[in-house]
């Protein structure tokens, strides 16, 4: 059992500490600085803060991180593969060019250091041959950011050239926020269904299918969901894709839920009902209500 704060606890602390009111800004800045307990001025452009707080202090932050990773090259390769790939254990080994033995060794070291934790598919697939490896989850969003955008470009960062980081971050920023949005969506769903509460929630994946949200309620209902953190409205095709994924996994959900950053098409809104619930970014507001000072997570290291 991890002694670290949950993602929601980290998010609530970040939201209060930095006096935020806009959920979009909160998610985007939290995806980078979450878990650090640094003061973050969200009126400044995000990459300016990344350059000022992280890249200019690369040497010092790197030294702190290597105390956890013991400068192990295998561990660093696995962390970067996980931060930039699909997070599945065996595909991360492959991406990091590690043998199964090397990968297992690096993974166990990282689990002991509590940099990552294992995430399991909520259900095992119907057919054993479709089973796939577990996923790796960074405990702190900042560590995920570091190994996605800082560690791979350390050579140019040391020369005070941040252009490679900026290019990589600009290209992947929106997709990078997807995971945080998905995890918060799961938390909101847990909070929302009061009459028939959720008893199990997570994601589902096998070799053929991937479902962002899969949940079971107390009465035995199955809920499947998808999350879209994009600047365009979600259309009916997203619901069709979700249903296709469920069919591949041989699930028959009682309810579908969609979470969208930018709303929904009129066609999709017309389908809303007992078996289809639509949530937006604003729907996440209950997750940041009534945060008390006691929920602030103190900074354990140096504040940058």
From TrEMBL:
Pfam families: DUF234. Residues 146-236 form the DUF234 domain. This is DUF234 domain-containing protein. The lineage of its organism: Bacteria, Pseudomonadati, Campylobacterota, Epsilonproteobacteria, Campylobacterales.
């Amino acid at each position: 059992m991890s002694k670290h704060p949950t993602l929601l606890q980290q998010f609530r602390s970040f939201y209060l500490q930095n006096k935020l009111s806009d959920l979009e800004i909160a998610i985007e800045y939290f995806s980078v600085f979450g878990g650090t307990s640094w003061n973050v001025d969200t009126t400044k452009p995000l990459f300016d803060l990344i350059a000022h707080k992280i890249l200019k202090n690369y040497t010092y932050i790197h030294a702190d991180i290597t105390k956890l990773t013991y400068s192990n090259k295998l561990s660093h390769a696995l962390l970067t593969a996980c931060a930039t790939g699909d997070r599945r254990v065996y595909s991360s080994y492959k991406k990091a060019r590690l043998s199964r033995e090397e990968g297992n060794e690096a993974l166990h070291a990282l689990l002991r250091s509590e940099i990552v934790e294992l995430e399991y598919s909520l259900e095992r697939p119907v057919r054993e041959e479709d089973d796939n490896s577990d996923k790796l989850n960074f405990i702190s969003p900042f560590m995920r950011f570091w190994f996605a955008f800082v560690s791979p470009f350390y050579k140019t960062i040391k020369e005070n050239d941040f252009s490679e980081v900026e290019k990589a971050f600009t290209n992947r920023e929106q997709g990078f926020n997807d995971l945080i949005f998905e995890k918060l969506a799961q938390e909101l769903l847990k909070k929302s269904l009061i009459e028939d509460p959720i008893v199990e929630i997570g994601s589902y994946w096998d070799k053929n299918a991937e479902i962002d949200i899969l949940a079971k309620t107390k009465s035995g209902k199955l809920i499947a969901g998808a999350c879209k953190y994009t600047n365009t409205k979600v259309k009916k095709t997203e619901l069709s894709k979700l249903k296709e994924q469920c069919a591949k996994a041989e699930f028959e959900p009682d309810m579908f839920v969609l979470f969208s950053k930018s709303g929904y098409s009129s066609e999709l809104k017309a389908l809303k009902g007992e078996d289809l619930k639509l949530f937006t970014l604003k729907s996440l507001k209950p997750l940041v209500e009534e945060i008390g000072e006691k929920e602030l997570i103190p900074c354990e290291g140096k504040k940058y």
